[in-house]
Amino acid sequence: METIIEVEGLNKRFPPDIHALVEFNLQVKEGITFGLLGPNGSGKTTLIRILVGILKPDLGRVMVINPSLHWSERAAKIGYMTQSPALYQDLTVAENLDFFATIYGLSGKEKRKRIGELISLVKLQGKENSPVSTLSGGMRQRVSLAVSLVHNPELVFLDEPTVGIDPSLRIEFWDYFKTLNNEGTTIVLSTHVMEEAGRCDELALLRDGRLLAQGKIEKLLLETGTKNLEEAFLALEGT
Amino acid sequence: MSIKRILAVAKRIIRQFIHDRRTLGLIFIVPLVLLSILGALFKTTRAFEVGFVNQDVAVVTPVGNQKLSQKIEDSLKNTDNFVWQIKNLEDAGSDLKNGSLDAYVLLDKNFSSDILNKKTPKLTIQLEGSDPNASQQVLGLINQNLTNLFTSQKGAEIKVNFLYGGEKFNSLDYFAPVFIAFFAFFFVFLLTSVSFLRERSQGTFERIFASPVNNAELVVGYFLGFLVFALIQSLIVLLYTIYILGVHFLGSIWFVFLIELILVVGSVNLGIFLSAFAKNELQVVQFIPLVLAPQVLLSGLLFPIKSMPAVLRWLSYAMPLTYANNALRDIMIKGKDLASVSFDIYILIAFALLMILLAAFSIRKGI
């Protein structure tokens, strides 16, 4: 498998005294679900924002998809679901999807078909014409996921994607993530829920802007001599 | 730049406003209400209560006993906006004190004999005086009437010609063009600032900046979206002022739109620039006294720039609305073409370019 993300010696400070990422290294192979596991403030969102290109690192090398791509070509291949729903509250579900589909270059029948598919995927049939402001928190989260996938991206960043979503839909989401992986899409998601992290193909464990460890779950358990991720995390934290 | 992405941004803004009926009302209805109030205020002229005390004693002339003040009395009685009350001096004095008279005119008892003896006859105008504006209007009307009377006595003819406007032009004709500019500038600035602030606070900018949309596409998309509403607003305001309020309009509507278009580019970008310094909607509103109030006072909107103190005059030259007002008045009242207002247009373009530059530097602030 090819490497789709490679990060070396990444540093990011927020003046005056926050060191969000410290000498951070990371490799992500394509076609897998890669989890960023860490508590709040560990640097997960900062890392994602640098990888999607909206934040510049102070120091370090970042390669996403292909270094020879123009930023706009790369942006067109990336999907990004922010931590808060980040939707136009006064527009309807369909209008939000339509706007983001258009700026990613979709049009006509292809656009309409894709919007229909996504509305079915996130189980919002019948809510297409409801303004987002009238939806529940969980529904907004579903629309937000649909928006990040509207252009069939090669690489998707999902920042805490399942917050506020009921357990049965969460399982469906994870099934869909696996389907996307099978189609060749790489998913990078952040979470602080151990159970969710356990579903990822590979994990990076973060603490205070530093990478504690990276690899498959079995490898992390083996290296730390622990039985579950929680214990592994605590063991790595102590080192 | 992708036209498709620009149009997507513009279409989204238009859709957002169509969903927001209250804001649509603010853009389209409020200017008409304000202009109607202004129209009513400008067209209403107050009638003044003026007492007339004629103590003149008749004198013997070749054609018999005559009061030579009679012509003055007859003439003054025909003054527009005056309600004449014939009084004796005592009543006139007490009526002035209790507010039932605004002024009285007193003709001395020797008025006729003074004229006959080639002395200067005495005519006294006693004003209530507490309202300087009313005093000036009363004095002006009496002076005008007396001047007309005396010149006609000497056989002179006063001919009044207007280079621009005409007898039928009133204050609303003078103010309507500048309010068209003001409404467009004000609403576009306010709504852009709030829209951009929302994009920042709701996180939609995160998504847009992670997409292939670049800064220029975003700004042009915003400009086009707002331009649609600004032009519709101007059209409604123009039609309303011309056909309902009866404002005189001599210029080309396309010239008006062009001035407005340049002004809106500046206004959208000023909104984008300043929204970067606001953390919430209340802080956007705080820009109104800072950015808009000085322009209302100093751009020639309400007070003529020529009569301002030098310092304020220079300040007014630093404000974009000054040039928009000047150009629109020249086009609408004087019927001038674009070449005649080219200086104002260049300054408005320079302002727009400066704002684009500032907006470009600040657009990603806080992201």
Describe this structure in words.
The complex is a heterodimer of chains A (239) and B (367). With 239 residues, chain A is an alpha/beta fold. Chain A has a domain of 117 residues: 3-Layer(aba) Sandwich (Rossmann fold). Helix content of chain A is 38%, strand content 26%. Chain A contains 9 helices and 9 strands. Chain A has a 6-stranded mixed sheet with strand order 5-6-7-3-8-9, with helices on both faces. A 3-stranded antiparallel sheet of chain A has the order 2-1-4, with helices on one face. In chain A, helix 3 crosses helix 4 and helix 3 runs parallel beside helix 5. Chain A is globular. The relative contact order of chain A is 0.18. The mean pLDDT of chain A is 89. Chain B has 367 residues and is of the alpha/beta class. Chain B folds into 2 domains: 236 residues, no CATH class; 108 residues, abc type-2 transporter like domain (abc type-2 transporter like fold), CATH 3.40.1710.10. In chain B, 64% of the residues lie in helices and 8% in strands. In chain B, the strands form 2 sheets. In chain B, strands 4-1-5-6 form a 4-stranded mixed sheet, with helices on both faces. The radius of gyration of chain B is 29 Å and the shape is elongated. The mean pLDDT of chain B is 84. Chains A and B meet through helix 2 and helix 3 of A and helix 1 and helix 9 of B.
Task: Give a quick set of tags describing it.
heterodimer; A: 239 residues; Rossmann fold; 6-stranded mixed sheet; 9 helices; B: 367 residues; alpha/beta; abc type-2 transporter like fold; 2 domains; 4-stranded mixed sheet; elongated
